[in-house]
Amino acid sequence: MTHGSNDGEVLEKEARLPETAVLRSYWTANLRYLAVLLGVWFVVSFGCGILFVDELNAVRIGGFKLGFWFAQQGSIYVFVALIFVYVWLMNRLDRKHGLDEG
């Protein structure tokens, strides 16, 4: 009775365990980044544009009320900035886990 093929499969699975742990760590960090960045975007777009608009409208920038500015343009600028932050964070995460392309 031979177990050659089963032994090979077991060894192959054991060899993949560290790789699986690295990928799990990578994915967990990626989800953490996404949750934080989407939370920031929610606060800026919904909070500053709708919930806190009356308080923010007391401040004027360039003749426009700050709450109006956040509702019309500010949340879009913040979203674009968050995209660049996400790219920077993911490149750093790729290098940390040895998954970078360069």
UniProtKB/TrEMBL annotation:
It comes from the Bacteria. This is RNA polymerase subunit sigma-32. It comes from Fulvitalea axinellae. The keyword Transmembrane applies. Residues 24-99 form the Sodium symporter small subunit domain. The chain crosses the membrane at residues 33-53, 68-89. Keywords: Membrane, Plasmid, Transmembrane, Transmembrane helix. InterPro entries: Na_symporter_ssu.
